[in-house]
Amino acid sequence: MKDNGALLSPKIILISGAVFMALAVAFGAFGAHIVQDALTPDRFKVYETAVQYHFYHALGLLILGAVAANYEDSKWLTRSAFCLIAGIFIFSGSLYILTLTDTAWLGMITPIGGFLFILGWIFFAIGVIRK
What we know:
Layout: H1 10-35, H2 41-68, H3 75-101, H4 110-129
């Protein structure tokens, strides 16, 4: 794997994916063992959605990092990684904070994270097509 020192090199994408996977497991366990009893069933469902999307896109980062390791400096794959990472922070992060603090206005920024997820997968496709 070539590590060109770029901000989001394949190595950094893989490390990010692994860290985000560990965090997804931790947030899932925290939710199942601590948070569930403190939230209404509807609010806990929102928390579970945050964990699910966090997990899916952390796994996506691992796949993306493995693919990027076999490509020469793909700006589209780098853009994809940026979007997936930002999407985890904005989509899942806003839902975690919303459910734990009852800060309803955060629900207004959650779709931005969803849009970044969609954009990230589109950029991934473009990166593979342009190889």
